[in-house]
Amino acid sequence: MNINQFQQQLIEYAASIGIDKIGFTSASPFKELKNRLIRQQELGYASGFEEPDIEKRTHPELLLSDAESIISIAVAYPSKMKDAPKSIKGARRGIFARASWGMDYHTVLREKLALLELYILTHIPDAKLRSMVDTGELSDRAVAERAGIGWSAKNCAVITPEFGSYVYLGEMITSIPFAPSEQMEDQCGECTLCLDICPTGALIQGGQLNAQRCIAFITQTKTMVPDEFRTKIGNRIYGCDTCQTICPKNKGKANLHQEAFTPDPELVKPLLLPLLNMTNRTFKETYGHMSGAWRGKNPIQRNAILALAHFKEESAVPTLIELMEKDARPVIRGTAAWAIGKINTEEGRTALKKAEQTEKAEEVLIEIRKGLEFYTIEK
What we know:
Structural class: alpha+beta
């Protein structure tokens, strides 16, 4: 078979199944990436969600014997939603980041990669293939950059001319020697808007992220949110889009064509109070199809409490008091106590004083005392 001719057929087939961009690169090691990853670990900037073995992350041949090339795919997701509900006093709302709108992208991209695999094996039955999306060993962004999907931007996203940085990425290591695509030149230029606006200073410099300070990472943790980040999270209950929405290259990129990612406004911009008493079962039934549900309901509920504190939503205080007094989870009790103090009502102060006498867990007592510190000390 003529590989170049088949490669062109594959490009056309990819478009027919809803893959927005496809590129090709060699399966040679990612040497520059390896040095960056080692440095990230040394600095303590990694999130801990990544594959820990740097050799596997940078040597495709360790993941597939006879690896010759890697196919990179990109599928665009929307940056706009129709009929977004308003967040108003008494009915405050949180927000899921755009990368969690609609169906879980892991599922959608895996389905498209599976179709690609089937197409390849139909034409080249002895081909060896291995696909991955996000949770695989390889760096999706490094592969996409080398395969000409886009350039690696200062905000650590891959930016495409067609869809901006609002793209999901996946890849397939193959034993087929496909011709490599042309790489794209960096088009960020002198712009530093993403670095300047990052709420927590997580973007250390262009292309370098301290994941431990990134709100997108912090909203997915399961422990108490460190004090310095609590007021910076705002009403984000999963992820953060600030470094994307500020980017001039994303201006005008609505990307509404992928129906699987069309958001339900009531789900991606949900009322905060109903989230607080949601059971595991209801949470899974309501949000289980979204990528933002992968860590379960606990981080979402903790973030919703912080969002209510951000709004200083007084109508939430009775519910927060109930959580502080009765919830079995120390992180939820403690976060509720802090939020009660932040909202600063007399009802809240009375409840905090009472809780200080009855709470047994030291980590929660610390938060109760922080909550009380928000009140003016009586003379």
